[in-house]
Amino acid sequence: MSLKQNVEGQIKSAMIAKDKVRLTALRAIKSMILLEETKEGFSGTLNADDEMKLLTKAAKQRKDSADIYEKQGRADLLEVELAELAVIQEFLPKALTDEELTFAIQEIINVTGAAGPKDMGKVMGVASKQLAGKAEGKAISEKVKSLLNS
Q1: CA 101 to the chain's CA centroid
Q2: 3-state DSSP assignment of residue 132
Q3: pTM, to two decimals
Q4: For residues 45 and 37, what is the distance between their CA atoms, to the nearest angstrom?
Q5: HSE (side-chain half, CA atoms, 13 Å) at 82
Q6: What pLDDT, in 10s, does the model give residues 57-90?
C-alpha cells in the first residue's frame, strides 16, 4: 500500500474518531503528496524514496516550529506541533540510536574508502541516501565529520 493510500485511510479513521490534531497532520501529509504529484515534469506516483523525503521534510518543519514556539514560550502552539510531529513519525522508520548511527557511518566510510576530512562529500552522499528518514542530516553530518577527523 502506498503512503497516499495509507494516509487517506487514516484520514477517514481520524474523521470518525473526531481526532482534530491527527486529522490536521494527515491532511498536511496528503497535501504534500498531492503537491509533489502535480508538480511540473512529474509523472506517475511517488516512489518510496520520494515519500520518505516528504515525510522527513514534514517532520523537520514541525521540529523547527516547535523549537521556535518553545523559545517564544507559546506552550499552546508547541503542543500542537509536537502532536502533529508524533503522527508524522508513525510513518517514518524508527530513528537510529547514536551507536547505530556511528556503526552505519563507519561502515559507509569503510566501503567508500574515505581517508580523511577531504572525503566528507563522498561519505555524505552515500550516508544521506542510506540513512534518509532514519537520522537527521545535521546528525549525520556531525557524525561523519567526527569520524573522519579521528
Answers
A1: 15
A2: strand
A3: 0.72
A4: 7
A5: 11
A6: 898 899 999 999 999 999 999 999 999 999 998 8
